[in-house]
């Protein structure tokens, strides 16, 4: 019975890892912008208008993942939606709400940032794997809109390195009337230019901790065996 008790203690110790310290990492966008439906993009404009304004606009956001070490558990995209005046709004639509979708982007970041992605880039910003979705409305004018990324988005962040691109579309465009969000974003007269990816990151336990713990367990096992041997 005494030997079993020592063995149980060893199993508990070996199966336990020292907890890694978590952290919230906020990444500021390196770039943002939009592509027109005809594949044009102006690299000098960081406005991320998304939706229908005469023609469809699809937005993009570029982040650098190199400062992130550890495992991402949750991720939230935060984007400011302006309210300039009683007549100039970030959200405009004949409908009370529209659906903002965030997608993966497989086109190389350099092509998206430059004016080289073309029609394929426009298509890529609104297709593929859906990372997040959120209903937007006039109530979001003058606020930071937060879009939590789903498990597909989180997995992509954990697998990604270097530049990471997200695409944005309105998935509920209907009819010819203007219907968009993020109008006037990044304008000089708009006080807030928030374009952030906020990550909850758990640090990976150091290998040395596991080695030390296993070594300590072996010492305890040896001591336990000696005690049992002496008493039998």
Radius of gyration, in Å, reads: 25 Å
Quaternary state of the chains = single chain
Quantity of strands, as a count: 11
Number of domains: 2
Order of helices and strands: HEEEEEEHHEEHEEEH
Strand content: 25-35%
Stated plainly, the CATH topology of the largest domain is called: Jelly Rolls
User: What is the overall number of helices?
Assistant: 5
Q: How helical, in percent, are the residues?
A: 25-40%
What this model shows, in words?
Helix 1 runs antiparallel to helix 5. It is globular and about 60 Å long. It has 2 domains: 47 residues; 180 residues, Jelly Rolls. It is α+β, with helices and mostly antiparallel strands and 232 residues long. The strands form 2 sheets. Strands 2, 3, 4, 6, 7, 9 and 10 form a 7-stranded antiparallel β-sheet that branches. The chain contains 5 helices and 11 strands, in the order αββββββααββαβββα. The N terminus and C terminus are likely disordered.
């Amino acid at each position: 019975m005494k030997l079993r008790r020592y063995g149980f203690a060893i199993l508990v110790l070996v199966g336990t890892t020292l907890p890694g310290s978590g952290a919230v990492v906020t990444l500021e966008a390196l770039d943002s912008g939009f592509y027109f439906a005809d594949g044009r993009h102006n690299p000098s404009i960081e406005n991320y208008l998304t939706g229908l304004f005469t023609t469809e606009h699809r937005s993009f956001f570029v982040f650098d993942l190199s400062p992130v070490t550890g495992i991402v558990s949750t991720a939230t995209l935060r984007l400011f939606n302006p309210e300039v005046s009683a007549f100039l709004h970030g959200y405009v639509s004949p409908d009370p709400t529209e659906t903002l979708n965030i997608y993966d982007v497989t086109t190389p970041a350099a092509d998206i940032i430059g004016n080289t992605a073309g029609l394929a880039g426009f298509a890529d910003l609104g297709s593929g794997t859906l990372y997040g979705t959120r209903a937007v409305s006039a109530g979001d004018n003058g606020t930071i809109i937060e879009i939590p990324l789903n498990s597909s988005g989180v997995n992509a962040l954990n697998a990604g390195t270097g530049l990471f691109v997200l695409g944005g579309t309105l998935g509920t465009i209907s009819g010819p009337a203007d219907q968009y969000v993020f109008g006037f974003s990044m304008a000089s007269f708009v006080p807030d230019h928030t374009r952030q990816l906020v990550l909850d990151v758990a640090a990976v336990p150091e290998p040395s901790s596991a080695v030390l713990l296993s070594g300590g367990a072996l010492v305890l096992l040896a001591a336990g065996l000696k005690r049992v041997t002496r008493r039998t």
